[in-house]
Amino acid sequence: MILINVKFPVRADKVDEWLALAQSYATAVNAEEGCNFFEWSRGLDDPLEFVTIECFKDADAGGAHTRTQHFADFVEKAPDLVSAQPQIMYVDHEQVKGWGPMGEITPR
């Protein structure tokens, strides 16, 4: 199993657009083969921060996810909606794999 947690700081004037994109994306990801669950929630300390929790059966399923068309569509639209580069954390069974910038999405 692989868990992926991403924090997205959303632009204040784009929250409604973000919510629509996030809901569409979550629906698509949850339908994927190998995805155990995917959800969005608001950050606890910042109302403009959104957090994803993704759980895939294994790293291969998570990697396959990044090659889907809805992932490409999300990456294309997301930079217009975020105020800073998202932060991503991968967690495997017993250890944290790493923490750092998510290179695929850079704000425009």
TrEMBL record:
Single GO MF descriptor: monooxygenase activity
Domain ABM: 2-91
PROSITE patterns: ABM (PS51725)
InterPro entries: ABM_dom, AI-2_Isomerase_LsrG
Alphabetized Pfam families for the sequence: ABM
Keywords recorded for this protein, A-Z: Monooxygenase, Oxidoreductase
Coiled coil segments of this chain: none
Protein's name in the database: Antibiotic biosynthesis monooxygenase
Native source organism of the sequence: Pseudonocardia oceani
